[in-house]
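## Example record

The block below lists the input lines for one assembly entry, exactly as stored, with component labels intact.
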Amino acid sequence: MIRLTPEAEKIRDDYLQQARNHLEAASTADPDEVGRDLREHIERELQGAEQPVSASVLRQVLERLGRPEEWVGEQDLSWWRQAIVRLRGGPEDWRLAYASLAVLIVGTALVGLLGILGSFLLARAAVEEPPDYRQSPGKKWLVYPSLLLVYVPIAWALFCWPLHLTGYFRPLLDFVRPSLQPYDLPRSLAQLAVSVLALTLWWSLLLVLVRNWPRSLRALFRPFADGIGPRQLGRVVKIAGVTGLALTGITLVVWYLGGAKPEMLVFW
Amino acid sequence: MSDRFFDNWTTQLRKGLLEMCMLNAMSTGPVYGYDIARQLRDIEGLVTSEGTVYPILSRFKRAGLVQARLEESAEGPARKYYELTESGREVLDRMRAMWALIVAGVQNMQAEGRGRGGDRR
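Predicted structure tokens for the full assembly:
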């Protein structure tokens, strides 16, 4: 195993991510397989180099490997991606990003939600095929607002919908407005325990699904989930599962010791 | 303008040739993926970026022209070896035959051209 300096490691990971993005766009090659081959190639090229390998030495290897966008012919892309590539090709390659921000500001003022949707589509197109996206950090400030406006509600709906089923927000309201309604601590604790348990189960199921099909999560939240792989997700499954179950257990014990009756669990 | 024209032409020429050379590299038996990239690097003008090789290998695999297998290595992690399948061999044979035809035809044409040039002089 070759050791790299932190800077070199970041450059390598960015390069492999960039390669993946291009290969996913073309769909003629398996991005995972090519990623492994590239990693192996880099390791072999660096064998015998002084360790930890510096960024400048790594750059020479990456230069010989070439720019990932050169590996995929435009004809290998689907028609809509070809259209995006043509639209993107412009002064500094930033057209879509500028258009996204413009539509967000002007479009939202004129047509409301439709403006956000239009801006989001342009922003997704801008990050979909980013040859040097990571090398142009300024571009993210043009596209992230539109992406976040759509991703945050999607993430909320996807990750937190069990809270609506368990009525988790009711005790919170009770707590905030004690004068309107007397605060019922045992009932709220029970509700909290059931909510945590429901979330734990849902997240565990969700994470297991995503761990097996990580591409779906990356596609849904691109580019924020680009670096997430099965290994990281596996760790999250374990931590979320253990923490959730422990929290549920503790809350139920506190609730029971507080003199509550099991019938109180039926509260929604 | 002529530089751009020449660049486009060489890109087109390389594309098909590279695929044939890669299948050729595997014609004698299983080859380590990295060694294919190195062999091709040594052919002057054929490979401008070594990384091109890996998406093509993956495409070959998807098309059933090659198969890959991992083999333990004393020097480090397991290495991936690629070898031609029966259908890969068939495609390579057809490519070689086509290449021989084209080379012969082009050489003839160039020889005739040189001959006509000599007559004129």
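The radius of gyration of chain B is 18 Å. Residues 2-120 of chain B form a domain with the Arc Repressor Mutant, subunit A fold (CATH 1.10.10.10).
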